[in-house]
Specification:
The complex is a heterodimer of chains A (404) and B (168). Chain A is α/β, with parallel strands linked by helices and 404 residues long. Chain A has a single domain, classed as Thiolase/Chalcone synthase (Peroxisomal Thiolase, Chain A, domain 1, 3-Layer(aba) Sandwich). Chain A contains 13 helices and 11 strands. In chain A, strands 3-2-4-7-1-8-11-10-9 form a 9-stranded mixed sheet. Chain A has a two-stranded antiparallel ribbon with strand order 5-6. The chains are: A alpha/beta (404), B mainly beta (168).
Amino acid sequence: MKTLRDKYCIVGVGETEYSRSSRRTTRAMAVEAIRKAIIDAGLKAADVDGMLDYQGGDSTLANSVASDLGIRFNFYMDVMGGGSSTEALVGLAMGAIEAGMCNTVAIYRSMNGYSEFRIGGTGARAAQPVRGLDLAQVPYGMRSAGQSFAPTFMRHMYEYGTTSEQVAHVRVAHSKHASQNPKALLKERVTVQDVLNSRWIVKPLHLLDCCLETDNATCIIVTSVERARDLKPRPVYIMGVAGRVSKPRLDFHWAHGPISRVAGYYAKDIVFPQAGITPEDIDVTGSYDAFTFTTMLQLEEYGFCKKGEGGAYVSSGIIELGGKRPNNTSGSHLCEGYTHGMSMVIENVRQLRGTVDDYCPRAAEGVHTYDYSPGRCRQVKDAEISMNLGWAMPATGSALIMRR
Amino acid sequence: MPQPVQYRGMTLIVPDNDSEWKEFYEHARAHRLVVRKCNACGLMRYPPTHACPWCMDLGWTWQEVSGRGTIYSYEIVAHAIQPGFKELTPYAVVLVELDEQRGRPTADEALRVIANLVKPDFTPEPEANVAIGKRVRVVFQDLADHMALPQFTLTEEPAQGRVWRLPG
């Protein structure tokens, strides 16, 4: 497949506060996040002429937020989609600019994922009528994301001997990272035993294997390298992108095994050749942590370890700050707050700029201590290349490789 | 349009024009588990779809299957999100691999079905008895005059392959 390596870049990122009670609309939050990203990029509203957003019937469309900000569109689309839409929309933004449709695209996601439409499925989502393809599993008490993914996780444990203890290390690592993140909702470091002692949600998932429903909005601004040249921040170059890659039989992916295989099996053969690199070249990863298991499965499927050795990989210390290849350095969905994937790309942009917003007094200038004890630094030293592994479900995912 | 079916607080809707599910549930109400079989290549598929995923032929016929199979994977729901399931917790959701067409057309493909693992009275099978590899057969939970849900129950047959359940 063709590559647009190093021709497009991310120049601005922004987010609202992460909370469990925003007390405002998704429109208000989206406007704040987009405005912050525009300012971060050193742009004006009039410089943004494209917009992409994603949602599942739980958010505000682009026409309202653009009007609030005084943005006139040359291109916009509202997309139905969940996790892994972030990376896919970065690719679509590149495509829209490459096609000559617009110059600069703001991508946003805004949701009251706890206070209004609980992303975990409780409340309004659970009350929806059941029809069509949902009849194949919802009448059996299998509706939420955790319930829909758990047989994949269980089969991985059966086939490869993966243990609850091993994957608990994902939570341990991400909680360590969140302790360095002023924005994180859960800043307290946890132990493997804390995870194993937390109550069961849907076996094999404990409460602490699950992410944190959150109210927030997030924004990423994509433009061409030419347009970025005279902008203030250091651009983060896009080396490769794969969007919403799927397994066969997407309507009912259980039909096409092995079910312990996830979409990264296919996406890796798109994104690594585009970027012209291998997993060994990656300094920091952002593997979607809707659950501890999703992080593990994707790291394994993209080749950061051998298939079946994901449990050993995530429990080895490699994925922690100070390790060889830290993962989700903001604490991300498990600890910082759930953003449907956006925050993990935002975090990697900041890592590659060298300006992660940790507790280092001169973080904004790129001066860090690299002291990873609690309440200090979360900047990865000399991070040059990052990779995001976006997850929608076992059978759909996206990937994004960026460099500084 | 047949009346929507109320089941455990959910509204199940199978309208007259539901060209995927309407006849499936009518067969289920007659206590037959059916899947679609391609008229051209003979391969069966579930859930009901319109073209054959292997040869794209549009012709198909309902094919009754034995309803016997093996637990391929499972989960135990401890925290129900649907209010009508809270009284059932902990309950098992099983992914059953049917005996027909196992390993075809490729080694990892099969006819697999999601359902609950239940006792003959349709209450949840206790968690200690739920394991990958155990043998099951279909049973039908009648919900209305025009609808029954296929469910699975354990059989006395010896397990298939390695029997495994989540430790603890």
